[in-house]
Design goal:
Chain A is mainly β. Chain A contains 1 helix and 8 strands. Chain B is an alpha/beta fold. Chain B folds into 2 domains: 141 residues, 3-Layer(aba) Sandwich (Peroxisomal Thiolase, Chain A, domain 1), CATH 3.40.47.10; 217 residues, Peroxisomal Thiolase, Chain A, domain 1, CATH 3.40.47. Chain B contains 13 helices and 11 strands. Classes of the chains: A mainly beta, B alpha/beta. The complex binds zinc ion (2 copies). The site of one zinc ion has 8 residues of chain A, from loops.
Chain lengths: 129, 390, 390, 129
């Protein structure tokens, strides 16, 4: 998959394809999410694509009551930072009942069609609920 | 040794200025600083002005030129600096470097922002909210529906979970800062609030409610820096800048090791204490960046006023109140004095200088003061330490 | 003596980068400069990045943080500087002050702009035109229907009236710069144009037509500054910055004494010649700010390459062409190399350094080079003079 | 008229009333147009309102063929800098035939209703045409 560069555009192209992708540093092995042209851990420019399983836990969250214009229809909604089992973290909307969200919740990647875009989000893992 | 002194400070009232534009607010603050320093316009050799997003709110860029122009100091060089909410902290730092370089003796620094009201563009809360979000990661935070209060809410949730910090701790910070602002005629809000009011306000981004958030304000601030050797020509109460540092961090929270502490603040503070050859316990008074109540609590920990996780305890013990061990935000802080983003860093210097001179509204006994100015959710932090010398 | 050397330069191709964002362009240019200097990321002690209006074009502020972040140099301090089209000239100057202050040995400077295309916000010509106008006076120029090309058109009309300058003189500048860019792989346009094409293009703001105007470009530039004492550790071809100056002027044209000359450029140039202890005739090569053809012609006069009013004559005599007495914009200039606003000032330094090293595309014999970077319609001008020392 | 401050807002309030107003420096006598809180010539903060006759000459001009969105309906139109007989200059739209505009043209202040606003502009003096 090396033909795509480690760019923001590539990340969102993968999202459209239903893949959560980061870059793995070929020098130090650090997994960069979002993908980066320069490894955050060691500064190396050598990387390969890395696909996440999509499983993770909620590290922290907020409930947005005053949303940006674009997200008006969704409010109130949860945004959280999800720590994936592979070790990297990412910010996304969390599909959960507002009164059931808590740090440590087991999550799995999901996608939402919203205003013509495919949005990255996470939902509570089935086994748990 | 930086060899830099502050010989004048000035600021506008923070709040709503329906009839004034950016350049007009800037001129008001700059003239006050110039008069305070007892210098003339011609004495200014360079200017550095912090502003976050005049393009967004007033459709006006090229701020350096317009600020020099309206102050009638052309052809003096004027640079606009943008580091989100730390824009004027960074502008001040550029001014310090300019004097330390030996090329200039007297430099004007400051900041300005029109965030809400104004004769040229009339903004509303939604537009202002979107404007503030410019300080966060467009591709990976704004795009995920995160707001600016949401960023600090993520830190608050994590802090509460890790350290058992309570909503009440946050509300107590709001109460303290409103109390300090109550007597400050330049503050956006001059009213005290009760803990009950602070606890029960309308939710903005859980767990942060309206009283955990600073307001959208208009305002400007300015300071005159001078080669320390020359300061005695202008004043007898000499205030030196004994440390000036800045550090960065990832713009997005999710790429950081911790959500309960700002690395940029810790690094800048450590470097500042080293530069000033002091320790955190030597600080008598501090202005910290309380854009949200949780930010002030985390600042206590990052600056070493207490151990990590003990910010709530410090509040409970009243140590950061006036009369406490280390009074914080004696002017009301961003929370109640207001937060015209680009003006905030130098407005902190205004209060520190007033305190060190013995001219403050809520005067405390202080010889050394610290200003902690954070950009965005911690992607930037500047630290300045000022000392009265005799 | 500034005691500052340039030990590395890098830039992206200027033009359309449909698939890249600001931070990605920045990283590309910065890495090239770092590799050129043969330093590592860890060697960088501070960064100053010029950008005009990322808020407008990509909805992204807090540029210092995002540029440090994506380059993986956190917690190194990173300041964003905005002086309209002179943003990276001003950022470079802050870097010079930072090294001159003695606080830093190695500093990264540069600039970036995404003006037109991009994956995050897709702009069109009308939006980009409105964006550029942010550099002019919102209240008294933008509000009167004036555009950015219109500002320079006002100067062109006045120059033609006062000095008898002809449209043909302007078109000859476009032809020269397109010719210089034709071989430059990093230029936005790599095609020569004829005088007839240049004369007869579609009118934008009379008397300026399409070929009098630089394009909207995306791109980034970077340079590594080093304390001059240490430069020999990194390279044998030492390039010193022997002058670094900046001046301001009123943002609106109507408040100036003259519309046929930029006071900011004259003042900055005079100070620069004085700082470098040279005269204008000592300049071997110059990069001047030809956002519009008339701007290059006026620059000849402001920099002292010819007498006031004789810019047209200088063009007629071919003295600013490659092979002439003082070759100007050997890389194609803003006109043909492109003008990603915030990146332009340091991209000029890229060309000067390449020329002084003997590594340029259109190599000329040169020991001393000058970069003239104008913000807006002259509200800011920075001048840098570089010299190869042996 | 001192009750209005030397602000941009005041300038446009006067425009609405059909008055072209600047500030005259009480220290050095310089007439600042647009009005300024700090004299451009001497830096003084003391000023009084000054009303212009509205007569002047065209110092320089351009014809805008590619306009900003707001002015689309007017293009092509002339914008010029007018030097008033009192000595100050100001930028405004010039009402003239495109092929008759030239530097030195005698002008008089005028106003144009445009998109709900009163725009400052200048027209060719009657006596001349
Ligand atoms: Zn690595
Ligand atoms: Zn005067």
């Amino acid at each position: 998959m090396q033909e795509r560069d480690a760019s923001i555009q590539s990340f969102y192209e993968f999202i459209k394809e239903g893949k959560l992708m980061g870059t793995k540093c070929l020098k130090c092995g650090y997994i960069n999410l979002p993908p980066r042209p320069i490894c955050q851990a060691c500064g190396s420019k050598d990387w390969e694509w890395f696909q996440f399983s999509g499983k993770g836990k909620l590290e922290t969250y907020t409930i947005i009551h005053v949303p940006p214009a674009k997200f008006k229809d969704l409010a109130p909604y949860i945004v959280g930072i999800v720590k994936l089992i592979e070790g990297s973290s990412i910010t996304a909307i969390i599909k959960s009942k507002l009164d059931e969200v808590k740090i440590g919740l087991d999550l799995i990647v999901d996608y939402m069609e919203y205003k013509g875009e495919k949005l990255l989000c996470f939902k509570v893992e089935e086994s748990q609920s | 040794m930086l060899n830099v002194a502050v010989i004048g400070v000035g600021m506008t009232k923070f709040g709503r200025h329906e009839n004034k534009t950016i350049r007009e607010l800037w001129v008001e603050a700059a003239i006050k600083a110039i008069e305070d320093a007892k210098i003339s316009l011609k004495d200014i050799q360079a200017a550095f002005i912090g502003c976050f997003s005049s393009e967004w709110w007033e459709h006006q860029g090229h701020l350096g030129s317009i600020c020099a122009d309206w102050l009638s100091i052309c052809p003096t060089s004027a640079v606009r600096v943008e580091n989100a909410c730390a824009s004027s902290g960074a502008a001040l730092r550029c001014g310090v470097l300019a004097i330390a370089s030996g090329l200039y003796d007297i430099v004007l620094v400051g900041g300005v922002e029109k965030m809400y009201s104004g004769p040229r563009k009339l903004s509303d809360t939604a537009y202002a909210t979107e404007g503030l979000a410019l300080a966060s990661d467009e591709a990976y935070e704004q795009a995920q529906g995160l707001t600016f209060p949401g960023l600090y809410a993520l830190m608050a949730t994590a802090h509460m979970h890790k350290y058992g910090t309570k909503k009440e701790h946050l509300s107590k910070i709001a109460v303290k800062n409103h109390k300090n602002a109550a007597k400050n005629p330049l503050a956006h809000f001059q009213k005290e609030i009760t803990l009950e009011e602070a606890m029960n306000a309308r939710m903005i981004a859980y767990p942060l409610n309206l009283y955990d958030c600073c307001p959208f304000s208009d305002g400007a601030s300015a300071a005159i820096l001078c080669k320390a050797d020359l300061a005695r020509r202008f004043t007898d109460t000499i205030i030196h800048i004994i440390a000036s540092t800045q550090a960065s961090d990832t713009i997005a929270l999710h790429n950081r090791e911790s959500y309960v502490s700002l690395r940029s603040a810790r690094v800048a503070a450590q470097e500042a204490y080293k530069m000033a050859k002091i320790e955190s316990k030597d600080i008598d008074i501090a202005e910290v960046h309380d854009c949200f109540t949780i930010a002030e609590l985390i600042a206590y920990e990052d600056l070493g006023f207490c151990k990590p996780g003990e910010g709530g305890k410090l509040i409970d013990e009243g140590e950061t109140e006036i009369g406490g061990r280390i009074p914080v935000n004696t002017d009301g802080g961003l929370k109640a004095k207001g937060h015209p983003v680009g003006a905030t860093g130098v407005a902190m210097i205004y209060e520190i200088v007033k305190q060190l001179r013995g001219e403050a509204i809520n005067q405390v006994k202080a010889e050394i003061g610290l200003a902690h100015n954070v950009g965005g959710s911690g992607g930037t932090c500047t630290i300045h330490i000022l000392k009265r010398v005799s």
